[in-house]
Amino acid sequence: MPERGNLLLLGTFIHCKSVQELEYIHNAAVAVDGNGKIVGIERDHQDVEQAKGALLKSLAWSASDVEIHACKPGQFFFPGFIDTHIHASQYPNAGIFGKSTLLDWLETYTFPLESSLKDLAKARRVYTACVRRTLAHGTTMASYFATIDVDATNLLADICLDLGQRAFIGRVCMDNHDISPEYYRDESTEKSLEATLKTVEHIRSIDPTFDMVSPVLTPRFAPTCSAELMTGLSVIQRDMGLPVQTHVSENKKEIELVAQLFPDSKSYTDVYDECGLLTDRTILAHAIHLSEEEASTIARRGSKVSHCPCSNSALTSGVARVRWLWDKGIDVGLGTDMSGGYSPSILEAARQAVLVSRHLAIGLGASAETTPEELERSQLMPEEVLYLGTRGGARCVGLEKRVGGFEVGMDWDAQLIGLGSVDAAGMSEDDEHGNLEVFGWEKWEDIVPKWVYTGDDRNTKKVWVKGRLVHSRA
Ligand SMILES: [Zn+2]
């Protein structure tokens, strides 16, 4: 049984054709069936009416049986964003850092808030707000860290399914009693594994094939986890084929701490590798201060990196080398890392990815191993950061065949973007479009970078996940 009626989308469609290249599809029509799948695309017609007619005819659909969404002037469809690293439980702390860096920020701000979400009414309030807000910014898929609490984590899965956001749901594992605070840690290694399996079972009960929401095994990061726990999680990973997410090499003090806690391991990356956690379904957040050898290990295992530029700047962690990671053959996506990052928006993360790559090109934050040629090549262009936020992210979560672009057979996970325009007298048409104003003479190749630099959620007019309209501004 299809979940809903057929859809027809009309207008301009823009998506990433490759890492460097955007494809502009004009005067086009896209057909989406009741299961949310793209079943037909007609493009480059004289006008959308012609595209619509041709598509209806080829599918033997009648116009009266389909729900139609047509672009107004200045609007275009873009694939939904994928946030490969976000802490739903930290949403209320977005923008609160003090002067802290990673380790004291965790103690002062993060652990107290996360532990308080065992109050389920509070968890429901925080998670509902987080999912609604990220949907409003065009995030159609998010890989979430929740908390250590099973019931609150299960609630996040329920909320994502209910509000229609695709999600990985991670119950946070932390059993190292020397590092995790007494009030916020798993009682023991066994209890941590048991609690993780409870969340897996809950999600299986609400979404048996993990089609929309899937559990993700989530050792918080090496300092809060015993080797036994991480090895136990890798056994579950192999048994069930589940994704894994954690942090790696975010901050120099953190790296020193890992070296003290795991003196027999050659590197931070090797700690995870020795526990069997580096798989082709593993997402590693940050990966800033990696050595050549660590990057080679990550590439060999097929593990992915979530680049979180807002967080890396806000917590003074450093500058991740995206081009260098790409050169090693590692898949990279974008993460907000809220609330290490202050913004729930992947568009903001994309913008910041451009800016921090410029810092790298200037030489700021480059490691001693970075060559002058690498520095010069390190700058990212708007097209490339949009790739990170869509197809790159899809590869990180293993959904590259289903989301991240507009192709027949993929799911309709998309956003409708609207631009403001300036009239002859220099007045804005209205305030609904924020800072993104066009004058009418811009080429599409200029409009997209303008969106990357000046756009925000006011430009995200509608959002669909798997064909379901999950957000609408007007
Ligand atoms: Zn994080």
From TrEMBL:
Residues 78-470 form the Amidohydrolase-related domain. One of its GO terms (molecular function) is zinc ion binding. Binds 1 zinc ion per subunit. Signal peptide: none annotated. One of its GO terms (cellular component) is cytosol. The keyword Zinc applies. It holds the Pfam family Amidohydro_1. Its cofactor is Zn(2+). Its EC number is 3.5.4.3. Pathway: Purine metabolism; guanine degradation; xanthine from guanine: step 1/1. Keywords: Hydrolase, Metal-binding, Zinc. GO terms for biological process: guanine catabolic process. It catalyses: guanine + H2O + H(+) = xanthine + NH4(+). Belongs to the metallo-dependent hydrolases superfamily. ATZ/TRZ family. Catalyzes the hydrolytic deamination of guanine, producing xanthine and ammonia. This is Guanine deaminase.
